[in-house]
Amino acid sequence: MNEVDFSKVGLKMKQLRSERGITQEQVAKDLNCTVPFVSNVENNRAKLNLRVLLYYSKLCNVSVDTILDAGRDLPPLDEKERQLNDEVLNVFRGFSVSEKEKIIKMLRIWQEK
């Protein structure tokens, strides 16, 4: 299993936030924390916690994997593939657990062909 480089994860979070024109002050207000804490997370001087990770995922409308993949030694996805991955995730959110299980089963069968 690949180790995650959290310095790259923090930079990805900062990039996503900045691309959307959201300030560290807004993040701090939403998370009920301080601006220095937000800065420290984005610059890998404070440990990332699940609440912050999920917040950035929702704030930036990307999957948690999109954020964490920045810290893995994986080949980079091009923008189109990243958008498609995020779109698939958003579509899946609308299904019940049993519907998701059926869809995954069908996709695995289709993938084997």
Report the mean per-residue pLDDT as an integer.
88
Tell me the total number of β-strands. 0
Strand content: under 5%
What CATH architecture of the largest domain do you see? Orthogonal Bundle
Quick take:
The protein is mainly α and 113 residues long.
Describe the structure.
The structure is a single chain. The protein is an all-alpha fold. The protein has 2 domains: 6-70, 434 Repressor (Amino-terminal Domain) (Orthogonal Bundle), CATH 1.10.260; 79-112, no CATH class. 67% of the residues lie in helices and 0% in strands. It is built from 7 helices and no strands. The chain has helices spanning 6-19, 24-31, 35-42, 50-59, 64-69, 79-92, 97-112. Helix 2 packs across helix 3. The radius of gyration is 16 Å and the shape is elongated. The two termini are 28 Å apart.
